[in-house]
Amino acid sequence: MTFANRLKELRIQNQLTQNQVADKLMVSRSTIGKYETGLAYPDFEKLVALANLYNCSTDYLLCLSNSPKRHSEIQLKLVDKIVTLSVSEGLISNINNEKEYDKLYEDIKTAYKTIKLIKRIVINPSTNK
User: For residues 108 and 82, is the Cβ–Cβ distance under 8 A?
Assistant: First the structure.
């Protein structure tokens, strides 16, 4: 499969016309037509916009992956559990900005380092004297 074919397939699956996609990307309909026939290729910003529009990864659009999902269901469930746990433990209330994400990330990173240290102490107590 080519980029052009994949792009057209995604547009049809999402029940969008070339005009609708063009409007969302702020380009002409003929530009979308050229993308879908392989006569032109989007720049980086448009490629990311297309991935967001079709809710897929850029790797999928570029035919580097056969999985359209950005993240697996397992990864999404893990993130959901981490956020739910963080809220229930009072680490965060509602994540509304990047600063809160960064703080949560650092807290989780510290927790993992602590767990690793405790495991080393518990598993090999004689080597930690």
Answer: yes
Residues of each domain in the chain carrying CATH 1.10.260.40: 3-61
Rounded-to-integer distance, Cα 68 and Cα 59, Å: 8
User: What are 40-91's pLDDT values in tens digits?
Assistant: 999 989 999 999 999 898 889 998 887 777 666 777 788 778 778 877 877 7
Q: 58 and 47 in contact (C-beta within 8 Å)?
A: yes
Q: Does 3-61 carry CATH code 2.30.30.220? A: no
Of 56, 59, 54, 44, the closest CA to residue 3 belongs to: 59
